[in-house]
Amino acid sequence: MMRRGFQVAVRLGLPRTLHILPRLNSTSTSGSSTGSRVSRFCPEKTDLKDYALPNASWGPDMLNLYQEFLEKTTSEGWIKLPSFKSNRDHIQGLKLPSGLVATSDKGDYCIFTRCIQVAGQGYEYVIFFHPAKKRSVCLFQPGPYLEGAPGFAHGGSLAAMMDETFSKTAYLAGEGLFTLSLNIRFKNLLPVGSLAVLDVHVEKIEDQKLYMSCTARSRDQQTVFAKSSGIFLQLQLEEESPQ
After folding, report:
1. Mind telling me the catalytic residues?
2. What are its GO biological-process terms (predicted)?
């Protein structure tokens, strides 16, 4: 099993000294659990801006479904995930395994799906996660800067949103960090300014990999925009040394 894990790492160009995890139990070898990862990812107090909050650009469908899921956070175990400018802000106190730290003299980092910060023009989205079900639902409203065919969102923007929802789910459900594969089958065009509901499930976790599926539908569930599957590699984040 470990041998196969290292073979995957080598194919990705990752160093052979990575801490590839054993098959996931309720806690990892470092004592990390879904609960502790959620707590770190969703700090109760922070000065960081949460971009996953309603703004004037959100349409009625997105606002209504957001309120529905927000109510479920108090009664059905769902958690609204904050969305900060960079993933670095979500994993403060942790670092990537040795050999995977990128060196740069630039400090203005921004996650791709938050690179258009004018409200309503790019990626408007919010993700809700259910720890027990290992499931996420993302509400995604594409803006005009994401246009492909006239009046419709570029397929790449929906692919990026699926990958982003996969990645957050993979990390919280089982320390999944890197996309090994992403397969998408587009079904219907997604109009700019409309709502796509992305439903993500962790199908299984084995051999240091998380296998996931996603279906993107309209608010009324009558239109399927795309279906996708993804595989993520588990990598254990290290605690940063005290300064």
Report:
1. 163
2. cardiolipin acyl-chain remodeling; long-chain fatty-acyl-CoA metabolic process
